[in-house]
Design a protein that fits this description.
globular, 8-stranded mixed β-sheet, about 700 residues, alpha/beta
């Protein structure tokens, strides 16, 4: 939907030097295939840009590739890439690999690997889902999802009225395959392709489909969170569970299946060769946003070069930080990718209020319920024990004592949802679920309105109910920001010695509701991981592009990232700018970066001078300059403060600017304070707009 812009491509070796990262290397002797077996797949990147840069056409790039293949005596490659990068994937012997070293046009080469998905799907319980009131947003925008495919039968991804304007410049195809016909693509799912040669058809599970059809469910969940239709009814185990909507419900999805299920689920994953092929195709097709919910690796490899080409083609690139926790740094170290980590602890909350105003808050989505309460153990059915009744087990409650009451059930014995079903069968109006010991509270989808209390609150509340059986109390949903967020302990943090601050931000990544293929046995499920968070960020980007189709990818990424809200107790290397909002950012300050600037900065090793939305300063860097631009249609006054720094003085000049629409201004950040091994300080620069917008710039000082 926008003009594509790109720049020249450098070799991987120079890129790695600029980022301080290792490049891909030659396969070792241990990788030599057994006699009669096919050689392993090798990914080869040539110097020079792909066609997206406008510096060469496809025929010229193919001729260069043919020259390299002929020089090393190789057969036709498995894949060729000409858009996001110039390269190919081929099966090469050790002798051919050695010959590559003599080819001046070869920038780098590496062995193909299988990467895990950055998310985990659960079919057991749906909890933590939040209905979306948004009915519009993202019209005309195409989100390219590189994942495990898509399930077009889901109502969240159906061709429905109200999708708004069709994409103008998208030119993707609908590749047929097992269980997938050309007419499975619609106005909602506008493109579908699949890539399996790297993973291997001999390694996939029998239930897999050699087509864009999703079997694992992960790709469908990611697609639905980013752009699922609005107002879709959710039913779980035959019970209504509210309504669902994606972040950008009018956006379109283009699915690129490059992740596959293996006979052993621990072997599921995505071949790098397949993923790079998907990225190359997505850029050629003209997607506006590209999301990858898979581990990005800890080095500048072929995939990162392909994503650089996508960013230079003016595509908003979103990548998952990964779920390795402290064992690995956040993926996608390059500043051209928005790396998204995961936050947990955000859930719907409910409140129980007594006649005098005293109240307790816990997990839940109860609505507005008023009535008398009864302790479940005091309402045991004939023949049932008090313990069975207290745990609200099936058929353990006396309907005569429970009817139209708010029933207080103890946790344990059976599932939480099963307890509310027992209350419903006995005629109870609502349930208060209380923990018996240490443990989290939840916001499950229950058969009756429910509030889940902690053990301490539950004991106090239960004592009140025992003393006041005839008093009426109220249950209500807590409005405002639900729950207390924290950075997920398993969400990968950034490298303090890296060239750029990662992750860029975090978003909800715990028990996120998404659509599932019917083949899984359920239409809905929850998934956790930085993949869910990345899907959310991709939807936010689509919302902005739907409103401003002339904005560059860098501008969109800037406004998304700087809208984060800091999470207390987490460093910026864990959360970036903080937790992303649930709606489109409203601030008017942006950090613009020319598509040509990425390579220029890498070539001159001046990444610190790039106009990024964060700062990572070492002891050698006490000063940095950034440029902000007013992207609104009206003049506005902006002021800035530095917050959160514990041991350093951070000064910003100027402290305020007045900018006309489209006008820019530089500001300088100067740092003074202790230096030495292990010294780490962080904080945030907060720009406040006179019209209410907030722009947060995270700063990490690794002194």
């Amino acid at each position: 939907m926008r003009a594509r812009r790109a720049s020249t491509v450098l070799g991987c070796g120079l890129l790695a030097l600029a980022l301080g990262l290792p490049t891909g290397g030659v396969a070792s002797a241990d990788d030599t295939p057994a006699q009669g077996a096919l050689p392993p797949l090798t990914l080869v990147t040539l110097t020079g840009a792909g066609t997206a840069a406008g510096r060469a056409d496809a025929e010229e790039l193919l001729a260069r590739q043919d020259a390299v293949l002929a020089a090393v005596g190789a057969d036709q490659p498995v894949y060729r890439w000409t858009t996001a990068l110039n390269g190919f994937a081929a099966r090469l012997t050790d002798a051919q690999l050695a010959a590559l070293d003599d080819q001046e046009t070869v920038a780098s080469f590496e062995a193909d690997t299988v990467r895990p998905l950055a998310g985990r799907t659960s079919l057991a319980t749906v909890r933590g889902a939040v209905a979306s009131p948004r009915l519009r947003g993202g019209a005309g925008v195409v989100i390219g999802v590189v994942d495990s495919g898509i399930a077009p039968e889901s109502p969240a991804l159906a061709d429905v009225p109200g999708l708004g304007a069709d994409p103008e410049d998208f030119a993707g195809a609908c590749a047929e395959g097992d269980g997938w016909a050309a007419d499975d693509c619609t106005r909602k799912v506008v493109g579908a392709r699949w890539y399996v040669e790297g993973f291997g058809t001999d390694r996939i599970r029998s239930s897999e489909s050699l087509s864009p059809l999703d079997v694992l469910g992960h790709g469908t969940q990611v697609s639905s969170v980013a752009a699922g239709n609005a107002g879709v009814s959710v039913r779980v185990d035959g019970r209504p569970a509210g309504r669902f909507g994606g972040v950008a419900p009018q956006a379109r999805i283009a699915s690129y299946k490059a992740c596959w299920g293996a006979p052993d689920p621990s072997d599921d994953g995505c071949s790098t060769a397949d993923v790079v092929s998907a990225v190359d195709a997505a850029v050629a097709d003209g997607v506006d946003v590209l999301t990858l919910a898979l581990a990005g690796g800890d080095r500048l490899d072929t995939l990162q070069v392909a994503l650089l080409g996508a960013a230079e083609a003016d595509v908003v690139v979103m990548g998952a930080a990964g779920n390795a926790g402290a064992s690995a740094y956040a993926s996608h170290a390059g500043p051209w990718v928005t790396t998204v980590g995961a936050a947990v602890g955000r859930m719907s909350r409910g409140r129980v209020t007594l006649p005098g105003g005293r109240s307790w808050t816990g997990g839940g989505r109860p609505g507005d319920v008023r009535g008398r309460a009864v302790l479940a153990q005091d309402a045991a059915a004939p023949g049932a024990s008090r313990r069975a009744a207290a745990e609200c087990r099936a058929d353990a409650l006396d309907a005569r004592k429970v009817a139209d009451r708010i029933v207080v059930c103890r946790r344990g014995g059976i599932g939480r949802i099963d307890k509310s079903e027992s209350v419903a069968r006995a005629g109870g109006r609502a349930m208060v679920l209380v923990n018996r010991g240490p443990g989290a509270v939840s916001a499950d989808f229950h058969s009756v309105p429910t509030v889940h209390l902690s053990a301490a609150d539950g004991r106090t509340f239960s004592r009140w109910v025992a003393r006041h059986p005839d008093d009426r109390l109220q249950m209500s949903r807590v409005l405002g920001d639900p729950g207390t967020r924290r950075t997920a302990p398993w969400s990968a943090a950034g490298d303090p010695r890296g060239a750029t601050l990662k992750p860029d931000a975090v978003a909800d990544g715990d028990a996120v509701l998404g659509a599932l293929p019917e083949s899984t046995g359920r239409s809905w499920g929850v998934f956790s991981g930085s993949s869910a968070a990345t899907a959310h960020a991709s939807g936010l980007a689509a919302l902005l592009l739907g409103r401003h189709d002339d904005w560059s990818a860098a501008r969109v990424r800037s406004l998304v990232v700087t809208s984060g809200r800091p999470i207390r107790g987490s460093s910026v290397l864990e959360q970036g700018s903080g937790a992303l909002p649930g709606r489109a950012p409203t601030a008017h300050l942006a950090f613009d970066v020319s598509p040509r600037a990425w390579r220029r900065a890498l070539r001159t090793r001046s990444l610190a001078r790039l106009n990024t939305t964060s700062l990572l300063l070492s002891a050698r860097q006490s000063r940095a300059v950034r440029t902000v631009t007013n992207v609104s249609s009206r003049p506005e006054y902006f002021s800035v403060t530095a917050r959160g720094f514990a041991s350093h003085r951070v000064r910003v000049q100027p402290l305020a600017v007045r900018l006309a629409p489209g006008e820019s201004a530089d500001f300088t950040v100067t740092v003074s304070g202790p230096t030495g091994p292990g010294v780490l300080d962080d904080g945030v620069l907060v720009w406040l707009g006179a019209r209410g917008g907030v722009t947060r710039v995270p700063v990490a000082l690794t002194r």
